User: Fold this.
Amino acid sequence: MKYKVTHTTKYAYSEAVPVCHNLLHLAPRVLAYQHCDDYRLIVHPQPAELDHREDSFGNHVSYFSIDQAHLRLTVTSSSLVNVSPRPEPNTALTPGWEEVATSLNRARSEATLSAYPFVLDSPRIIPFAGLSEYAIESFPAKRPILESAVDLTRRIHEDFKYAPRKTTVDTSIEEVFEKRHGVCQDFAHFQIGCLRSIGLAARYVSGYLRTEPPKGETRLVGADASHAWISIYCGSSGWIDLDPTNNVLVSTNHITLAWGRDYNDVCPIKGVIIGGGNHQMHVSVDVAPAK
Amino acid sequence: MATSLPPAKKIFQDYSPLASAYDELLDSSSEPRKFAQPFIDAINTLGKDELALRWQQANRQVHENGLAYSGHVGVGDKTRPWELDAIPLLISSAQWKRVSAAIEQRARLLNLVLQDLYGPQTLLKNGILPPNLVFSHPGFLRAYLGQSPPSSCYLSFYAADLARSPDGNWWVVADRTEAPSGLGYALENRIVISRMLPDIFRNCQIQRLAPFFIAAQETLVNLAPAHRENPRIVLLSHGPASKNYFEDAYLARYLGYSLVEGGDLSVRNSKVMLKTLGGLLPVDVIFRRQNSGGCDPLELDVDSRYGVAGLTQAVHAGSVTLANALGSGLVESPAFMAFMPQLADAMLGQSLLMPGVATHWCGQPAGLKHVLEHLDELTIYPAFRQRGLDSELQLRLNRLSTAELAETIRRNPARFAAQERMVRSTAPVWGQGLQSAYVALRTYVTTSGESSIVMPGALARVSSTLDPLEMSIQNGERSKDTWVLADEPVENVTLLDKPGKAISIRRSGAELPSRAAENIFWLGRQLERAEAAARLLRAAASRMDGETRFSSSVELPLLLRCLADQGHVEPGYAVPDMRVPLPPIEQVLPQLAFDTDQPPCLRSVLDELFRLGSVVRDRMSLDTWRIIRSIDEGFIPNPMVATSLFELLSLIDSLITELSAFSGIVSDSMTRTQSYQFLELGRRIECSLQIIGIIKNFFVPMPEVQRPAMETILEVADSLMTYRSRYMANLQLAPVLDLLLTDETNPRSLAFQLFRLSEQVEQLPRDRIQPGYSAEQRIALSLTHSIKMMDIEMVAESHSLGEFVMLEKLIAGWEKELKQLAEAISHRYFVHAASAHQLAFISPQSIEP
Assistant:
């Protein structure tokens, strides 16, 4: 599948901002099943400096700074992405989940070592009493890890209600669990918390979801926006992505931008401004199939 | 012992160390150790009385220099003076060689560990370190993974805390790698003690500290990107609220660097710039005294209010170097101590030259088991040290019962480490004679490229208990100067003269950071505010008691009106009909002066004066600072009894004297640099406003009985003597107004203030290319013009006839323009306290149509 993605973020300040520094995670990540034919970043006003590098998780990061006083800031990224189908994993043949947990606990190999940071708590995913109890129901002894994770994904999809604007970026997973509602980011954080609570490695994936539904299928929730899902480390079966918001295995409908331990590591636009008074923000995302 | 002094005078005669510990000066049979003999003899020869006398003088110096452990933040949180002990700690040259080789090895090792953990991580791959030790650590900065600092040097500065066990062996108790503190105190201790015991210091052949500080300066110079010549080096402090601020200021001054806070720096085009009055200047090296995590709110700790946004970008671009490198704090955690022997083996192929005190990390099953079984014998620490943020947690841990402690650890074992307790060695401390106290040493290494230099000396900390060191220093225990003996005579070195190095003559010092300029400006304003308030209070108080009371029915209401106008007394006292329900002013006035709950009271002005003084200490002479301290300490009421009017008067009299001393020292000895300019600007603006204020309150409208009013205003404006010498006792409005407003020969007149103000404004740094006058120049010109053009006789005459509008208009105009001037200066030259904000993290769904 080919997509053209346009992601525009606008800020308006009540007072002039003399200086700002920003960090962006807006470029599609290059993967075995995803490549990016074109990526453009347009920032207005003209940045004094624009630089690109890779962060410690291998994501593409853009840094820019503006040092002329401004009342508005617009950041637009536009990319042409080609997503090919991922090999369909045979859930029943993935390793038993305890086996993966044990190998992570003794992390030595390149693969387990690089998965290890995703076992530990992170700033936005803090465990609470009852979390592992909820998780373990899907993880009876020796059950194949992906089969268990798919089951957990299904349960979250059934138990939690999709409720836009009832949670904020600061909502804890404990609160999400209590209220049983949230948005894709909350579900991803919650599921990651579940997996980590039993010693498994899971990461937060930020990206987009295709907007136009294929004929005969229902429209997926989360369209026309940034989206978030999770990826779980399945030992010899590698990392496999699951989308708890839509209860699906991630495939060609999802476009991957970046991954990290939680939202903090990969939030699309981070910035520090001096002054500025009150500020308003407006985001629009367009994901269109391309030829 | 070969001395013939009477036994009573021999200081060491009474000293008997504890049998359970190793004593640094006496052996197990209480005889002096051989290397300490000359020192002990010399102290004995000095005698108790002489030592006591010298110690008293030295203490005064410590006190006046005000090197305090914690910064001064507001009232009720006064600084705790740095407690120094009179008797230095001696270490023999042979011993020191071993100590110094050991800590140099440890610095090298920890640097290699950091290189590996931020690089290839072979220590994790080979199973030498468990991965959760690193990845769970809040001090592990992912943003710096794979980012090696220049010459791979993470630890330009390293410190090790050492202690000696009863068998006489040294042990490492803790490592300090983030931004080792205490160097300033070690230096100050040395200065005080070597001055107090100059002969003994010289005769005992003590190794000097100065070469170490010269090496430290070279370390920093060598870090400059592209080996730039004369790099700009700044000392980045966590600011006045941090407990290390005084030390930071002290070191900055001693080493000759600008003391800056995060807000003084800004990143432009991937370069770190210092905001100064003359514009942005590039910074090459940052001597970092702030924790790594707080250094960049964009890429490190997002909650940091003190960082420099974009610093990580500048570091990535290689345009600036930090010492120590960001992320260096990782290895100073107790949890790492548990792995040091294996690390030495893996990284150096050596064993440790000095063992560490046995430490166990609970993040591993074996460690946890051992700790839970031996809880009573161990001290529990947070496993992942976060410098300066742990002391609360440490305190709480210390208060827990064994059962509670076990429960706390079991809940989250990886967060705790435990260290075996040790009976540290003792040394004599001076009090009522000599008593023994436990000591611990903080030793320092500076590394530049391949070469490391160990400071021949240390900060010795003494305590009466064996509590963890962190606790003892916070509880205000004492420290000692540490004398490392040399094998041969020692050369004198100072930081000032470097022979062979030509210095070009300069007429100005280091550039003044905008923040410092702002603080100095406000210091000037508070000074004048304090003086004006003191004079008004004195005039009012002296009219309330005894003799003068009867004749004061005219002046007192006027004075109260002035005081009420500035918020020193309730407005009710200034309105005759409202005075009834209020307690008599003569009863409350003494309390009002000290009532810091009523912010504009004189005491709170002095508190602010002292706070500003502390903050700009590094830009003032020691004498100036002493006066500021003395002002702060002098104006305090007797806590035992309610302050009487009489006592208030006497306190105000001395306060006014001290304030005049400050003005004197400023005009006599302060070089005419930018610091002086901003102090003057602050003083002259405030003084002008005060003069205008009293004239308005006294003469608009004109009081019915004028003579006492005129006499009082001249007294308050400190111009009575001048007036009498000119006009004798003939009081009239025109000459009074002339003296207070237009007479530029009177240093208390408005004209005098405005002309000085205008001179300073002319000299402010500004872009010369800019055509025409700047805003502040225009306002200053307008002010001087208006005072020059004023027809004082005409104003006075019409005023006497009841036409107040002329004077009123003038006063309103001056007031407005002075405030505009202060604003214009602030706008152009000061850092705007507008704090940094995080652009709200965007929720993926938060789309608004």
About this structure: Residues 72 and 839 of chain B are 33 Å apart (CA to CA). The radius of gyration of chain B is 32 Å. Chain B has three domains: 89-357+422-484, 512-670, 675-832.
